[in-house]
Amino acid sequence: MAVVEILEFPDSRLRTVAKPVSKVDERVRQIIDDMFDTMYDAPGIGLAASQINVHEQIVVIDVSDDRSEPLVFINPEITVLDEETFEYDEGCLSVPGFYETVVRPQHIRVKALDRDGKEFVMEPEGLLAVCIQHEKDHLLGKLFVDYISPLKRNRIRGKMDKLHKQKSS
Ligand code: GNR
Ligand code: NI
Q1: Whole-angstrom distance, CA of residue 47 vs CA of residue 111
Q2: Global confidence as pTM
Q3: Which residue's CA is the closest to the ligand 1 atom numbered 6?
């Protein structure tokens, strides 16, 4: 069990673009195990490797009520299936305590590798579809606060800066 530190906005390392995983081996599975430990401990419904300062395309998610349905997405590719959108009040473990409405495509197809390196395709719905897009954004160096107004984002940045100063003093 290894719960690791989650980077917090506005840490510039969260802006790093993650590289694809070339081989799903024991090293990658160790990262995945640490990610699940960290996500369940937080607790959160998803975590991207970027958030623990590992800049490889690895995502873990569990949107089930009883935390019993772990999902792994390595090198996830998303295609948008139609124009329909979905609004959700999003939060992020890297921006703790803040929630804002984000509009995203509702119908997507996801192609990825599982923890055995086997390719799978799924068409997620609802919260799972939201979460996968939120995590894919992390891998691209993007955060949900990038979708809100600069005024709101700067306010959140100010509050996070203050919080981090209090922690370090
Ligand atoms: O735990 C999380 N909850 C959440 C709620 C609404 C939309 C997205 C999320 S993901 C977030 C965990 C996280 O920060 N993943 O990157
Ligand atoms: Ni997040």
Answers
A1: 18
A2: 0.98
A3: 90
